[in-house]
Automatic annotation (TrEMBL), chains A, B:
Keywords: Isomerase, tRNA processing. This is tRNA pseudouridine synthase A. Formation of pseudouridine at positions 38, 39 and 40 in the anticodon stem and loop of transfer RNAs. It comes from Halobacillus karajensis. Residues 7-105, 144-246 form the Pseudouridine synthase I TruA alpha/beta domain. One of its GO terms (molecular function) is RNA binding. The gene is truA. Substrate binds at residue 111. Homodimer. Its EC number is 5.4.99.12.
Amino acid sequence: MKRIRMVIRYDGTNYSGYQVQPNGNTIQAELEKALRKMHKGQLIKVTASGRTDARVHAIGQVIHFDTPLQIPIGNWKRALNSLLPEDIQVSSVDQAADDFHARYDTSGKEYRYYVRNHQEPDPFRRNYTYHVKAAIDIDAIKAACRYLEGEHDFTSFCSPKTDIKGSKVRTIYQADVSKRGDEVIFIFRGSGFLYNMVRILVGTLLEVGRKERRPEDIQRIIAAKDRIAAGKTAPPQGLFLWKVFY
Amino acid sequence: MKRIRMVIRYDGTNYSGYQVQPNGNTIQAELEKALRKMHKGQLIKVTASGRTDARVHAIGQVIHFDTPLQIPIGNWKRALNSLLPEDIQVSSVDQAADDFHARYDTSGKEYRYYVRNHQEPDPFRRNYTYHVKAAIDIDAIKAACRYLEGEHDFTSFCSPKTDIKGSKVRTIYQADVSKRGDEVIFIFRGSGFLYNMVRILVGTLLEVGRKERRPEDIQRIIAAKDRIAAGKTAPPQGLFLWKVFY
């Protein structure tokens, strides 16, 4: 047996999320279906760095699995891509240490979130951006981002539906926003992210950008340790799991 | 009654094409459904500049219809966009002359075709580009484009499934290709285009780009007046009806 580590990208539009669940097609189920074909019907269980929700995308999701196959490492990518649907693709494949673990070994993650800031929706970007008509004050959001960076208890930015029982202290190394044409792009790098955390961060920062909150309100929101203190959860389709660090 | 002229854009991915047909959802059916809601159940028939096939997109499709409603012209766009699905949007609305006709009055059209030229497919561009792995010689295609421009009988570039009985003489004002990053973009402006003409032009030009044909072969292909003489029909998802001229 050897352990394989893969970087994959996917368009989450037509999936109920990453993780296998009773009703709904998922990224994990497609990966395991393709691997099952390569393994003559044998179930190969795949472990990812973490889940992504329905309609959320990934550019650099990382997974691992164990295989008895003696395929040269350079051939895996093409073999799997020929079996996977067009909206899920393997970017790179490496042999990993036997004890490598895609979830437990992560040292951090980068997420990006895309907003279309324009009077009109764009039919071609509808599945990859959140459409916001109102003017967005980028500088106000940048100021708010400064209060997010660092080690904090992010309970206020965690969905109550989480199954995390332990500490909600995480470190955000970088929170930033920029504008490119009609798109506003958020970047978050951190040690780890709670359930819906990036989408709640974006929803709250957009309220700052629309002058409904002040940048310095972020301090109070963090201190509250209460989901009610933060803003709305931004919708899933603007979110991309960009990179996983080990 | 007044005649309304609208420019619409749509992502054709999830449609069986523009024109209403027995089995399948179409752009026209969605437009007429939205108009029917605005007209309290009355059928408002819509006429477009021309059809687009299943999975083909439009940036500047033009349609017209007649309405008894006394709505200020500035309010139509928002009213319709609130009733249309996210992948079909109205870009502009004007009152037209009573005898304006979206199909008969066209003086020309511009189509663009997008190719992704990269070793790997991109899950996020799969519905908007044709993925071609082989190296493409842009200069060879540019040379071939020179033979296409002008007035010709384009029978060789017309699907035999066409219902056109008359002349297949058309004028191509401009045929051009350019490369931007990993994308190769074709532009065709002409007096009119036959059934599948742009897709057969692109399929043939890509064979020139892959050195399977020489640029000057275009002359022979046009002269043959036989679909067999030209190249393969490129797939629909790279094609955009970009602009209609009147």
